[in-house]
Design brief:
single chain, 333 residues, alpha/beta, Rossmann fold, 2 domains, 5-stranded parallel sheet, 46% helix
C-alpha cells in the first residue's frame, strides 16, 4: 500500500467533514465530487448551491452540504462571534459583517463553531488569504511558538527518504526564519512526519555546506538552529548543516559526512529559507514527476491547509485526506 493509499484509507475510516471555500473552481468541484463518491470525507461547499451546480453540470455534488454566507442562518451568529474575537483590534460590527461575507473566513468560523473538522483552500487564493483568517479566528495550538508549513513529496524514486516519501519545510510561510524559528520549524516538522506516517523522522538541516565545508552567516544560522533543536529535544534524530546530496545519497554522505547517523537517509528536509524550499519542491514535483501534497500548515488550533495554485484534482483530494487524518490526531490528543 502506498503512502497516499494508506492516508485515504484512514480518512475514510475517520468520517470527517472538510470545508472547501473555493467551490466555483473546476478542480475543487471535481475533487469534491470524487471525495463524496468515494466516501473519503463529508464536504461543505461555500457558495450558492444553484450557481455552483450550474457551473459544474457534469459533476454530482448532491451529497455536499452548501453554505452561502449571503443567506446562511449562521451568518448573524458568525458576525457576532467574529466581532467579539476581533473588537480589541479595532474591528467594528460592520467590519465583522463584511469579513463573514467572504468564503474563507466564513468557512474557518464553521471550524471554530465545531461544524466542520478542517478546511482546505488555496487553489484560487494566496497563502496569506488562507492563513490570516485561520490565525485570527482559530489562533495557534496551545504551546505552539510558531506556525509553519510543510509539503509531503511522494517521489517515484523509492530509494530516497521513506520509500520515496519526504517532508520539505518551510515551503510557504516563513520567508527568512532566524535560528530559533528554524529550530522550531524542524521540531514541528519532525513531529508532523511521525504523526502522519508512523515513521521516525530523520531530519537534515540543509545548507550549501556540509559540516563546515563552507563559511558564511547563512551557514552559521543553520548550525545554530541545529544546536537549538537538539537542545530543545535531545531525542530527535537531526543533523546539520548538510548539503542536499549528503542528506539523501549514502555514497555522497560517506564522502562528505563520514560518521553521520542520518546522512544519506534523511526523510525530513529543513530548508534555510522560503526561497530555497519553495523553488526546490516545485522543481522536484515537475521535473521529478513526484506527488506533492500541501502545503500543510502546522501549529494552528484546527487543521487549515493551503494548496498550491497549480494544484491538480488529485493534489486537492490528497490534501483533504491528510486534513482528515490531522483532525483525527488532534481529537486523539
Amino acid at each position: 500500500m502506498t503512502f497516499m493509499e494508506n492516508v485515504l484509507q484512514k480518512a475514510k475510516a475517520a468520517k470527517k467533514t472538510v470545508v472547501l471555500p473555493e467551490s466555483e473552481d473546476p478542480r475543487v468541484a471535481a475533487a469534491a465530487a470524487k471525495i463524496l463518491s468515494e466516501q473519503i470525507a463529508d464536504i461543505i461547499l461555500i457558495g450558492e448551491k444553484d450557481k455552483i451546480c450550474k457551473l459544474h453540470p457534469d459533476l454530482d455534488l448532491s451529497q455536499a452540504r452548501f453554505e452561502d454566507p449571503a443567506t446562511s442562518i449562521l451568518r448573524e451568529e458568525f458576525n457576532q462571534k467574529y466581532w467579539e474575537l476581533r473588537k480589541h483590534k479595532g474591528c467594528s460590527e460592520s467590519d465583522a459583517s463584511e469579513e463573514m461575507a467572504k468564503a474563507i473566513p466564513f468557512g474557518v468560523m464553521m471550524l471554530k463553531a465545531g461544524l466542520a473538522d478542517g478546511l482546505v483552500a488555496g487553489a484560487v487564493h494566496s497563502t496569506a488569504d488562507t492563513l490570516r483568517p485561520a490565525l485570527q479566528i482559530l489562533r495557534t495550538k496551545p504551546g505552539t511558538k510558531l506556525v509553519s508549513s510543510f509539503i509531503l513529496i511522494d517521489s517515484p524514486q523509492k530509494e530516497f527518504g521513506e520509500d520515496g516519501l519526504l517532508l520539505f519545510s518551510d515551503v510557504a510561510l516563513m520567508i527568512d526564519p532566524d535560528a530559533d524559528q528554524l529550530s522550531e520549524i524542524a521540531l514541528s516538522s519532525a513531529e508532523s512526519f511521525k504523526r502522519l506516517t508512523g515513521k521516525e523522522a530523520r531530519v537534515a538541516m540543509l545548507s550549501f555546506s556540509t559540516f563546515g565545508s563552507g563559511t558564511g552567516k547563512c551557514i552559521e544560522k543553520v548550525v545554530e538552529a541545529t544546536a537549538l533543536a537538539k537542545g530543545k529535544n535531545p531525542d530527535i534524530i537531526l543533523e546539520g548543516e548538510l548539503q542536499a546530496d549528503a542528506a539523501l545519497v549514502p555514497i555522497v554522505a560517506a564522502l562528505k559526512a563520514p560518521g553521520s547517523k542520518i546522512a544519506g537517509k534523511a526523510n525530513c528536509l529543513i530548508f534555510p529559507d522560503l526561497n530555497s524550499a519553495n523553488i526546490s519542491y516545485k522543481l522536484v514535483q515537475r521535473l521529478g514527476k513526484a506527488g506533492a501534497y500541501g502545503p500543510i500548515l502546522q501549529g494552528i488550533a484546527k487543521p487549515v491547509n493551503d494548496l498550491s495554485r497549480g494544484a491538480s484534482v488529485d493534489d486537492i483530494i490528497g490534501v483533504v485526506a491528510l486534513t482528515c487524518v490531522q483532525s483525527t490526531q488532534e481529537t486523539e490528543n
